[in-house]
Amino acid sequence: MNDRLHAWLDIALCDVEPARRSRLRAELLDHFTHAQADYQARGLDREAAGAAALADLGDPQLTAAALRQAGLAQPPQRQAAAVTHWGVPAVFALLALLAVHTLRLPLAQPPDAEVSVGTGLALLLQVASLTIAVSLPLLFDDLDLSVGVVVLLGAYLVRAPDLTAPSSFWLAQQPTSLPLVLLLTALAGAAFGLLNGVLIVALRLPPVLVTIGTGVALAAVLLRQPDIHLLPLGTPERITSLAPTLLVGAMTIGLLGLGSGVAARRWRAPAPDAGPAPTMRERLLELRRGALLVLPLVLALGLVRWTWAAAWSLALLAAVGAVCAAGAAWAYGAADTSTRRTRVHRLQRWMLGLGLGVWLVLLPIGGAYLVNTLLSVLLLLVLSVLIALALAVLLRGVWAGRGRMWLRLTRAPLRAPAARIAALVLCSSVAAAVGGCVGAQGIRDGTAVHATAFYVVVPLAGLIIGGQHRLSGWRRPVGALLGALVVAGLTPLGSDNLDSPMAALLLAAVFACAWRLVLPPPRPLAVADARAAAHDEAEWKHLLHLA
Amino acid sequence: MNFKGSLPLLILHVLAEGPSHGYALAAAIRRRSDDVLAFREGTLYPTLHGLEDRGLVTAAEVSAPDGRLRRRYHITEAGRVELARERAAWARYSRAVTVVLESPAGEPA
């Protein structure tokens, strides 16, 4: 009961400034205690009295809206602006740290296959910078799928000066010029981001298609460069099988689905009417939805790399996909909205558990696979436990309606054109700079770090993307797919085949376009205000009952 | 003005009879209207805090017997003036609604 009440309070008071929030909280708690006591005096047992008292409070979103209307709470737009102000310096701070770290390493250092504390730090900084960079355009509902290619661009530009003599690095002879080179790289990234921004904002083209297009165009240019394979971005010997990759991919999809599900619940769009029980045909349609979500990825990966080593991984992925699809069909097969929601939530919980569990196991194994020293394995183990704990806390928080400000802020997207362009510019610029740092480091200390990066980047980026994007309702699976695509765009960091993310992107883009043609339109939404309000209330009662 | 907009009026009216805290206010409004005006109680506090910010009510914090902090609301002079004005507005509004309802139906507008 207490949990439900606190979840209610968290939702209702989410936008209120702290001092007033604690006052309102105390008052509402007092109110609830009295109401519960009253109901108990009328003969209800404690639990039922609590439920009735909570129901009397109404939908927490209504209270939140009333607080905003009375000018007692900041509307989410202003919060979002505040967070953007906070996020931009954070990106630059991380980037500065990364650059300082990159500059600090002696250039003459021999290749180092072990993951030391220093390389671990660099790795963390890369991941943090990239994930924050990727999430910036998402504040505005703009997905940037070209990030991975821009990382590649950055790495390439840093190495470009040695084009004439591949055996000697110009940068290695002129170590002091690295800051300048990094700056120029970031500027090149910014120019690329500006192109994206102008196409998306000024010409009003869909961000997904624009960034896929520019990304593929850039990749086509880069991949034609004769020395591109010299980049320290792939480690074929170390990632000998696609298995871990695919496992991470499958898990990422799970986390994405989960994240988007949670997101859709928190920023819920008007829900469709429950209506009568779905017919068999509708259930089959849901099954097809689930299957279509997984199919393109399996196809893409299969087309790119069909080897015996990869075959069992594909089978595994297909199995995971089938389970997901069956689960979705089962969940949607329920007769009424509330049962359906219960099932969806149960499914999401299972996926959360599975995802976290697999990840917890996978990261140390992946680390041990890459490095041999006990210290490194321990370091990775500690790291993975910490990150997994952070994810669990984060998700638990979102789950209970206690998501932090930055996780909730996309409820009301900002539509300021300049800010959108700035976010895209910043994203590409950071990505290019990170790529530059990766490239510069690769000159010196081998590639083990970047293969490890893959294990960390993918789930983390997946989680953040899944949690932040704003698609909901029937578009939810598409949103998860798009999130997975962003992750696929990041894979040049760890992939041994630079073409594979591109192929996946292209295939999935075709798929995303076909989605609307294949599937029937969503059911009509309830339009009458009163009806929607009644529905909302019933839904909330149910959700609170679940919590 | 409608029922939702009349919540401040109802609150001020109850407070004009004596200071009260949130739950008692909600219970009073509910009881006196025979449960007809059973609003969502969660929206009561935003309204109360809004009235407080406008200086129409003041809140004194007292500690309840169980140790909880409780806010007791008093109406201010400005609140009484506002109450009179709101009451007149409501009378005008409800009279207008009554007049419309009592006019013969089916008349072209």
Plain-language structure description:
The complex is a heterodimer of chains A (547) and B (109). Helices cover 75% and strands 0% of the residues of chain A. Chain A is mainly α and 547 residues long. Chain A is elongated, with a radius of gyration of 25 Å. By secondary structure, chain B is an alpha+beta fold. Chain B is 52% helix and 15% strand. A 3-stranded antiparallel beta sheet of chain B has the order 1-3-2. Chain B has helices spanning 7-16, 22-32, 44-53, 77-102, and strands spanning 20-21, 57-63, 69-75.
Q: Outline the low-pLDDT stretches of chain A.
A: 77-88, 105-117, 231-277, 304-311, 366-373, 390-415, 443-481, 490-533
Q: In which order are the strands of the major sheet of chain B placed?
A: 1-3-2
Instruction: List the chains of the largest interface with their residue counts.
Output: A-B, 28 and 24 residues
Helix/strand-derived category of chain B reads alpha+beta
Q: State the helicity of chain B in percent bands.
A: 40-55%
Overall structural class of chain A, as computed from helix and strand content, comes to: mainly alpha
One letter per element, helices H and strands E, the order of chain A comes to HHHHHHHHHHHHHHHHHHHHH
Give the terminus-to-terminus CA distance of chain B: 22 Å
| Rg of chain B | 17 Å
Number of strands of chain A: 0
> Element order, helices and strands of chain B?
HEHHEEH
Rounded radius of gyration of chain A (Å)? 25 Å
Shape of chain A: elongated
The percent range for strand residues of chain B is 5-15%
Average pLDDT, all residues of chain B: 81
User: In one word, what is the shape of chain B?
Assistant: elongated
Question: Features of this protein?
Answer:
heterodimer, A: 547 residues, mainly alpha, 21 helices, elongated, B: 109 residues, alpha+beta, three-stranded antiparallel β-sheet, 3 strands, 52% helix
Short description:
Chain A has 547 residues and is mainly alpha-helical. Helix content of chain A is 75%, strand content 0%.
